[in-house]
Amino acid sequence: MLRFTLRRIFQIIPTVVVVALLIFVIFSVVPGTFAASLFADGKRAADPQMIARLNEEFGLNKPLLERFVAYVTDLAQFDLGTSFRTRQPVIDLINDRMGASLQLAIAAMVFALVVGVPLGFLAALRPGSVLDTVTMIGAVSGLSMPQFWLGLLMMYLFALQLNWLPSFGYGDGSFRNLILPAVTLGVTPLALLARTTRAGVLDVLNADFIRTAHSKGMSEAKVVRWHVARNALVLIVTTVGLQFGSLIGQAVVIEKLFAWPGIGSLLVDSVAIRDIPVVQGTILVIVLWFLVINTAVDLIYAAIDPRIKQE
């Protein structure tokens, strides 16, 4: 198990290096700079001397190779750079926003788990029933529905029409402010979990060892508890890990829509003003989060099914 764990952890390093290289190259060739964006609103006439001075101050006038060496050197020291706009370390800006993003992602995942897994499980135990049909229609609808459209719909219904919940903002971090963005973000993983759970449970129910357990006189409840649930858990855990790892990235649109102060909204704001260090650092953290969660899922997967370690 230790060798398997170390192998999975060391696989993260080359992936992070490649992603960092791609991020640097992409944002180095994108037109526009932070200095130029200061005059993009048209309220002030562009000052070429000021733009040149700011570009020199931020090192944007240096050769690409020199900037890349400096970027990699800083990354090796866990330094994500300094924001062009606030002049604060990027890591501090991300730390200030990460808590809100984690809160939103965890709430969305809990919502998806609590609703999606039981629905998929019950639908598989009663294939062809009304519950099965309604669950699958809802799952397909949830996967097909754009999150931003669902968010606008929920804001209109529950905030503007019924006045039950605040429409946007973090407020004091209360549960009421979290409900709408968390439910909006959680609908897609909920739908996927319901479909995956149903497929996994049906696959286990049709296995030979389940028929053997029934033929030995084991009750339906015991078969489901001791055989079906455990064997279907592998697929469910994998789906949960993949979805939870990607929720931070998926939350970019939701955070901006609901004015949620997470790293997603930080990324969107930074792209708009070409604050490249913040953009690069935020994307790198999102990718690293995804890789760490998936590595953790691999380890849980191996603990549930020891055959994985032999592959």
From TrEMBL:
Highest taxon in the source lineage: Bacteria
Keywords associated with the record: Cell membrane, Membrane, Transmembrane, Transmembrane helix, Transport
Membrane topology: Multi-pass membrane protein
One annotated Gene Ontology cellular component of this protein: plasma membrane
Predominant place of localization: membrane
Domain ABC transmembrane type-1: 98-301
Family note: Belongs to the binding-protein-dependent transport system permease family.
Protein name: Glutathione transport system permease protein GsiC
